[in-house]
Amino acid sequence: MQLSYDYIVVGSGATGAIVANSLVEVGVNVAVLDVGVEDEQYKEIIPDKDFVSIRKEYSDQKDYFLGKQFEGIPWETAKVGSQLTPPRSFLTQLTEKLIPFESDSFKPMESMAKGGLGGGWGLGCYEFSKPELDAIGLKEPEMLRAYDAVANHIGISGIKDDGAPYCLRDLKNVQPVSELEQNLSGVFTSYNIQKNSLNKKGIFVGRSALALLTKDKDNRSAVQYRDMDFWSDKDKSAYRSWMTIDQLKEKSNFAYHKNCLVLKFKEHDSGVDVIVKRTDTNEEQIFTCKKLILSPGVLGTARIVIRSFDYKKEQLPVICNPYCYIPCLQWRMLGKEIEQKKTSLGQLVMYLDENRNNFDVGMAALFSYRSLLLFKLIKETPLNYSDARIIMQYLQSSFTIAGIHHPEKGSASKFICMKKDADTYTGDLLTGQYILSEQEIRTNEKREQKIKLALKSLGCQPLKTVYTPHGGSIHYAGTLPFNDNGQMFSIHSNGKLGGTKNVFVADGSGFNYLPAKGLTFTLMANAYNVAKNVLKND
Amino acid sequence: MENKSIYIFEAERIGNYLLGVTVQDSEKNTYADAMQKLNIQLSNYEQALWNSMIKSKSKMACIDAALALKEPNNNARRKLFTMLAIIEASPNYTSYFLSRNFSFFYIVKIGLVGMRAVCRAIVGIFIINSIKRKCN
To answer: How many domains is chain B partitioned into structurally?
Structure first.
């Protein structure tokens, strides 16, 4: 087995795949090291059909809708990752064993899967505004070029409407927007009637820009509106990072090593040693490279960096968007049949931009409910199951769910901490604390109140606000803040890890601020720039 | 084997309670399989509730309604919930779960069903309180 490469990328998620792709494109020799868990149970048994047809025709649907071990029937307190459907549960497989995390106030989700957490990405693409990029520590001109390059690679559909300044901006090569489902269409029509008064309050609603093909691209098909987005990626219309990894595997200058949990790195005169614990044999192995690019996700990078710097600093800051969701009843949809052909994706987004400066914007992605099955909704009612079933069957078409993200900054009460622990797989344990100040809680509540009022005016009656534990937004950043002075435990704006010569970080570890808008597209664009900087640095 | 026949009996009773029909053997067998795999453990109190629920459909409805309000995570309800999920994920019963166009007047039925649920919960609270007293 070859153990020496010019460039080694750690992790195959949204950022790792883009870095690897950008390096392979220029012809250099690249390896990705990854644990690489894959779905071996469900991929092959899910039919290539739409949700309603499967429900009506397939007797083995319980195997993937409920899971072969009935793991898709949730009960009591949710564990991290338990919101994933059985065919997506591989995303968090092995994490408890390989990278345990303990905290009462912070419940992050991490992945050891091929393609990382990108396998469960909601596909929302948001090109951040200049004030947002400045606050994060990224340079707008470079990022605009990178956004276009990444959009060309992954394929984005959208439209220039009132939401465009918050997502598409001037992005080129955008595919036509997907067909809007009936549930959200009513909301959008209502917005267009009332937009002048809503705009005055800082409320803007627009179609989401999604990493979803509406036209065929390479070996991927346009969306078939099968409403199976939570269950399978059969037509490959939704971009997933593993697709890039699979494409790269065809190239002679690329190698993918699975079962590799990277523990730490060690720099020497001729390059970098990468110390790996093989998850198949539990033995240590050393890879070498000229340059190392870390992109296993913010918490994964923190673990590797703390170990590599001999635990000189055990506590690092962390940022994560506070998240809650609001189920609403949309009166105009009461008792209606949901159309057969739709998607499960958030096709409409409400933005609250009170200062009209595209900064500290609140965001609510709007979804309808069907393909996660009715029994999960029935469980949430305070009624007996048989009566709840009758009522919820009637109401289900009128549920509109608003998933609210808040913008977020770091503070002294938000941190992660790594301690040695001989009982764990890697000999250490990551813990953390995430506590919002009273002021932050009040600001978020005010924002939620304004969004609820706007939803009401659009015909969506909010029923309750469900708060997820901190970490539930699955957006993490800020552990190694951007800083150009080259200090250890910081990242230079070109992506180089402070205190090293040949180690770069391509994930969100450097971000000093998290806009409420989803950050995956920006992470990928930053990863693209880091790859370019790695090459320049030669 | 003895357990399986108990589970098949439970499945029949729960299916009848949830949908008002006799569920097919395939769903009963799936329920038995689920019970073996999930291994739901009942406390003495939960077992007493369950013994009472399994006796009649109306008791099952009342106790379920009361638990939904007072003890939604009671493991006796977990058995009902598991069967609900199994029935939903069967092509034989999709019409009970998928949305359809209801007439405007169906809202009256929804109101009546809601009122029935409340009445069931009131009766159920008396039943579970008396079972709780006996268990203590």
So the answer is: 1
Least confident of A28-42, A73-87, A411-425: A73-87
> Could you please report the per-residue DSSP string of A421-450?
-TTSTTSEEEEEEE---HHHHHHHHHHHHH
Q: Return d(Cα A226, Cα A52) in angstroms, integer.
A: 8
Q: Which residues pair with A32 in a beta bridge?
A: A9, A256
Is there a contact between A337 and B101 if contact means CB atoms under 8 Å apart?
yes
Query: What pLDDT, on the 0 to 100 scale, is given for residue A77?
Result: 63
CA distances from B90 to A344, A396, A411, A422, B4 (A): 21, 19, 50, 47, 20
- The count of structural domains within chain A is 1
Reported as a single tens digit per residue, the pLDDT across A311-329 is 999 899 999 999 999 999 9
Whether A235 is in a domain gets the answer yes
| Sign of the dihedral through C-alpha A178, A42, A33, A79 | positive
**What residues of chain A lie within 8 A of the CB of B110, using their CB?**
390-391, 394
Task: Provide the residue range defining the domain that includes A454.
Answer: 159-239+322-406+437-472
Q: Which domain holds residue B42?
A: 2-135
Confidence of residue B2 (pLDDT cuts 50, 70, 90): low
The closest CB to that of B64, out of A72, A335, A384, belongs to: A384
Q: Is residue A148 part of a domain?
A: no
Residue at token pair 């649920």: B117
Identify the contact set of chain A against chain B, taking CB-CB distances under 8 A.
Answer: 52, 55-59, 61-62, 65-66, 69-70, 72-73, 75-76, 334-338, 370, 373-375, 378-379, 381-391, 393-394, 396-397
Which residue out of A52, A57, A62, A381 would a mutagenesis test of the B interface target, given it has the greatest number of B Cβ atoms within 10 Å?
A: A62
Quote the pLDDT of residue A502: 97
Please, what's the b/e burial string for A192-208 (b: 16 or more CB within 10 A of its CB; e: otherwise)? eeeeeebeeebbbbbbb
Partners of residue A373 in chain B, C-beta under 8 Å = 85, 88-89, 97
Please report the pLDDT score of residue A165 as a whole number: 98
Beta strands in A157-229 (DSSP E): 203-207
Query: Taking residues A35-64, what's their average pLDDT?
Result: 96
Let me know if residue A428 belongs to a domain: no
The C-alpha atoms of residue A240 and residue A250 are separated, in whole angstroms, by 17
Interface test with B, best of A57, A340, A386 (most B CBs within 10 A): A386
Coil, strand or helix at B47: helix
A429 belongs to a structural domain = no
